[in-house]
Specification:
By secondary structure, the protein is an all-alpha fold. The protein has one domain. It contains 4 helices and no strands. α2 crosses α4. It is elongated, with a radius of gyration of 18 Å. The N and C termini lie far apart (about 70 Å). The model has no long low-confidence stretch (mean pLDDT about 85).
């Protein structure tokens, strides 16, 4: 029984794989193989947490970019 638990832990997506999956899903280019891995072996909480952080970073990045462009245009 411990062998199966160990193999389940090894099959879970890493943080990098989680980030790649979320970025691919945001762009709409997620592969079927990765999507299936995410749904069968992934943890919903980790995907939601990483998604929220990435979306907040995207919004902050957009705000900074727009402010820089507006400041450059005002000069």
């Amino acid at each position: 029984m411990t062998e199966r638990n160990d193999s389940d832990k090894q099959d879970k997506p890493t943080l990098i794989q989680t980030i790649q999956s979320i970025l691919a899903a945001l762009l709409g280019v997620q592969s079927g193989k990765n999507r299936e891995r995410d749904f069968t072996k992934g943890d919903a909480g980790s995907y939601i947490g990483v998604y929220v952080v990435l979306v907040i970073a995207l919004v902050i990045g957009m705000i900074i970019t727009v402010n820089m462009v507006l400041d450059a245009a005002a000069k």
